[in-house]
Amino acid sequence: MKRITAVCLCLLVLLQAAACGERRDRFTETWFDLFDTVITVTACDESPAAFREHCAALREELQGYHRLFDLYHAYEGLVNVRTLNRDAKNGPVAVDDRLFDLLAFGKEIYRTTKGKVNVCMGAVLSLWHDYREAGTEDPANAALPPETALKEAAKHVSADDLILNPADKTVYFADPLLQLDVGAIAKGFAAQRAGAWAKETLWNAAVLSLGGNVVAFGVNPYNSRGLWNVGVENPDETAEDFLATVSVSDCAVVTSGDYQRYYTVNGKKYCHIIDPETLFPARTFTGVTVICGDSALADALSTALFLLPEREGTALIEATPGAEALWAKPDGSAIQSSGFAAYLKK
Questions:
Q1: Mind listing the pLDDT tens digit for each residue in 78-104?
Q2: Residues 61, 210: one domain?
Q3: What tens digit of pLDDT does each residue of 188-231 get?
Q4: Which of 75, 217, 303, 321 has the greatest CB tally within 10 Å of its CB?
Q5: Are residues 254 and 158 in the same domain?
Q6: Is the same domain home to 216 and 332?
Q7: Could you give the CA distance from residue 101 to residue 298 in angstroms, rounded to a whole number?
Q8: Residue 295, SS3?
Q9: 150 Cβ contact list (under 8 Å, min separation 6)
C-alpha cells in the first residue's frame, strides 16, 4: 500500500472500512488548521450526529493546546509561548497549568536526552526557520544561516535560564535573550493529554493523529487481536510500501524525519531538526519512529534519537522502560530496538 501524506505527515492509521460493533459505526473527521499539520480522528460512535458532537468537543480541547503552545500568534487574554518570549524576560509570568506542565516536561526531557531536546533553542531555531521560509519561497536564492549568527544565538539557549516556579505556576527567563521553541514536544504533549481526555469523556475506542503523532486507545473490534494498525511512512519517496506496519493499542506511535519540512541549498537538503551541538541538521538518519505509552515522551525521544549517534540512541531507548524504536538510514536500511519486532503487524 502506498503512503498517503495528505492524511498524515509521517504515519497513516490503517483501518478497516467496517462497522465498530453493534449500533456503533466507524467515523472519521480531519482538520487542517491546528498545529500546522493534518489532524485526523477516527472513532466508534452511535451515530453521525453523536460523532460530530464529540469531534467538536475534541477540537475545542485541541484548540486550547494549539493556542497555548503557539509560537507565532498572540491571543487576547491568553498567555502563550509567544507572549512568554516577549514578556518573561521582564519578570515572572503566570501561565495556564497546561503550559506550565509542558515546560516542566521540557526541562525534564532536556536532562533525559542530555540536551538534545531543548525547548530553549528558540534563538537558533528561529534563524533556521526564517532562512528555510525564504529558501522555500525563493529556491534560486536559498541560503544557510551564517555560522556566526548561529553561534551568537547559541549563547542564549541554556535550559538553566528557564526558571519555573511550581508554587505559583510562573515562568521567568533569567537570560533576556532566551527564546522558547516547543516544537519538539508540543504535538506529542497535546496528543497525549487530548487523547486521555477523549478516552475518559468521549469514546471507548479511537485513534487520534496529529501529523506524525498517533495515539490509539481502546479495542479495535475488527482486528482479531483488538489492535489498531499504523503504517510508518518510508522516507524514500520512491518506495511503494510503508517502512513498517505496527499493531498497537493504548499507546503512541511517533515519527520524526527529514522528508517533510526541509529546503534545499546548492543541491543539498536541510531539514528542520537541528542538532544543539553542531547547530545544523543531523544527517545520520532519515526517520525515527518511537512506540511507547506516552505520546509526549515518544515525541521527545523520536527527536533525540534522530540527533544521537546510533550507539547512544540505542542505549537511550533500551534504558527507557516500555519504549521501542525504528531507525531509517539514508542508504535505505533500517534498524530496530530489541523489542520493536513485537509490535510488527502479524
A1: 999 999 999 999 999 999 999 999 999
A2: yes
A3: 999 999 999 999 999 999 999 998 799 999 988 777 688 989 99
A4: 303
A5: no
A6: yes
A7: 16
A8: helix
A9: 124, 127, 279
